[in-house]
Amino acid sequence: MKEINVGLIGWGTVGTGVARILLNQDKYIREHERLSIRLCKIADLDITTPRGIDIDKNILTTDVNDVINNPEIDIVVELIGGLKPASDFIFSALKAGKHVVTANKAVLAAHGKNLFKTAKENKVLIKFEASVGGCIPIINSLLEGMAANNISAIYGIVNGTCNYILTQMTQRGIDFSEALKEAQKKGYAEAKPDYDIKGIDAANKIVILTSLAYETEINLDDIYIEGVTDITQHDIQYAREFGYQIKLLAIAKLLEGNKIQVRVHPTMLPEDTMLANVDGVFNAIYVLGNAAGATMFYGRGAGQMPAASAVVGDIVEIAKCKIAGTDPQLLPLPTLDNTRYSLKPMDECETRYYIRLQALDKPGVLAKVSGILGDHNISIASVIQKERGVEKSVPIVMMTHEAVEGNVREALQEISNLSVITEKTMMIRVESMEGDEEKLAIV
Amino acid sequence: MKEINVGLIGWGTVGTGVARILLNQDKYIREHERLSIRLCKIADLDITTPRGIDIDKNILTTDVNDVINNPEIDIVVELIGGLKPASDFIFSALKAGKHVVTANKAVLAAHGKNLFKTAKENKVLIKFEASVGGCIPIINSLLEGMAANNISAIYGIVNGTCNYILTQMTQRGIDFSEALKEAQKKGYAEAKPDYDIKGIDAANKIVILTSLAYETEINLDDIYIEGVTDITQHDIQYAREFGYQIKLLAIAKLLEGNKIQVRVHPTMLPEDTMLANVDGVFNAIYVLGNAAGATMFYGRGAGQMPAASAVVGDIVEIAKCKIAGTDPQLLPLPTLDNTRYSLKPMDECETRYYIRLQALDKPGVLAKVSGILGDHNISIASVIQKERGVEKSVPIVMMTHEAVEGNVREALQEISNLSVITEKTMMIRVESMEGDEEKLAIV
Fold first, then answer.
1. Which end of chain A is more exposed for a tag (fewer CB within 10 A), N or C?
2. pLDDT by residue (tens digit) across A65-102?
3. In this structure, which topology does domain B139-301 adopt according to CATH?
4. Is B54 on the interface with A (CB under 8 A)?
5. A3-134+304-330: which CATH topology?
6. CA distance linking residue A227 with residue A207, whole number of Å
7. Closest residue of chain B to A340, computed from CA coordinates
8. Residue numbers in B near A331 (CB within 8 A)
């Protein structure tokens, strides 16, 4: 039986999961894949804290070079996360002729093009299934199964923290801050949660998916990113009244004129769509291809074992290629040097909008507001205005027809200057998704 | 640019779709995959009926040997369907040293073991993503991404015809026969619909998935198959009252003692599960792995372009391997020679049951029925017995706790012999799916 030697950089949660699978599933992998994967080095700054698994102490090291420059090692697995020094380790490993498996979304999103180029130059493979959607095989599917398709849209629920928070707000009527605290207590959110709740994590992931789907280098700084921190229980309730659920979506769309639009923001989705039913920490990625139509992939987007499962899947794939004598240089890796597509600015985005205003309960307010919207070519599809209560100010909630983002922003700016407006206005984009499949050109 | 030559056997719906993608997406595939796929032969008994695409007449032939024994051809694509003569063509192609792509579930289910063996002996690849779930990449995922997982269960909605019929019955309150007629009118059901509505199609597909997940040869004749023909509007309504939806599920489970259970039957699913929300002609496959947890794949399970998309995905994969010099003989193909697992007989199946009796409205009927159930170790979880109407006989609807299939059958046989029972008794199995993930052993 052929043996493949693996070195691990980063012995944290996922690293421990990978080690656990490689140890405990060794017999299974030998039987099913007819190959043996040997974990022969683990590098971490902390090699003394017990991880609850039985690792031979001789394979532990605090020097990353014991992995990267180890002539025995075939595959380097990078699991320390974050941009630096992870990117240095990955580039060094590729240049040392090692295949690389990583779960590092930040490095992939920032250096994808250069990584693929370096891998190709050094005749090695780089795989990164765990970087998006945990155990969901979305990377492989985009690179392989959808080869026959022009991808017309990707809609992803790719951040479990945000989805958990929004699900709790929706199902139990609690506020954002309470839901966040609960997520932190359960280990679904970090003590410093900004990376997740402000949408940065989701943005990194959609950059990776978009760059693969369109073979185009996408810059994180060029895409629109909005997190879930401003969502209130009011919005959750009104969404329900309109028949919608609020999800943090990462969206990429191919539009006319070879433009692609990439954006991350809270989104109202019709409650009967598949994505609207993805709850809790689960992730799902909905892909529209011109031949395949609508496809959706659902699963655990994070967590020790789901991420480790994807990492080991990548290791097995590389091991198979190595054993079968595949020349990695000859594999058509994505190059991300496509110049055909360009990013469409967010101001030109066209969608429907939910707008919630808080205004003094005076005659003529609705007329004023709708007048300003009309001046900006925004027409109202429906309005909820509740009866006057004891409060002096009342909410006015509107759903618009399709409108242009830039116009909506300008109109909302003007509206917010009205003296009758008493609070910050909320705006949430709406994706109907209906008819998306029908709109696709048949190949 | 490397060129790969493809020969097509079967110029029907999917074959035409494949030809269309290869022609229309040629530029796209060249750009994205950096390879050129040339369709150089199409064999069909009918090469004169127009298919609505622009095919060079010189590549058409009525002689299948022009494809199989054509030295120019690298990949033979079999799309005629059905067991014979398709299996002969596939075996001949493999023996002639051609890689094979097929969508043929019948051949895969019947000859999987021998096909993989023949491919390996002849140093070629066989791929069959389109055989299950159309464009859903479930085959690749089981063979690749889930490599690190022991699969503990597969639940599949894998027949679009049945799912369309059940969805229409549920959403519009129409009867089975009306829903079937409508499906036929829309092209979702054949004029002779038995293969689909009796569960044979779904059974073939779960045989394929099970054999891959457990590397074990499974015989179609050994598994329990029940179609959707007996489902009535009553059952749909009662299911809803209990909080369930009825779906035709193809199920494979790994049980204690290395037993696997494979079965196809209408199933009541809690209405808030992801699978219960898969409507219309869509398919979905829910996989539980011990590391990945729950994963679900959703998409169009049939239709010209979705199936063609999967076929072309396979062609591209083989082309990449060929270009990269991969030795197919060295790829660890499944062998299906595992002797570790054996099939658990259906009589030993343990699940919950929905039972609908029609009985004379006399005192003591419920006592009699529940007495018989109790004698067979079946305990009742809830009962719906509606008030007496004008009818002499009334429905008694029960949901049991977990019980053993053999006991349930015996009890229902005894009950049906009671003189108070006026109609055939209906029994539908219930899968709660809740806690499935928690029950899994962590690796």
1. N
2. 999 999 999 999 999 999 999 999 999 999 999 999 99
3. Dihydrodipicolinate Reductase; domain 2 (3.30.360)
4. no
5. Rossmann fold (3.40.50)
6. 16
7. B31
8. 320, 323-324
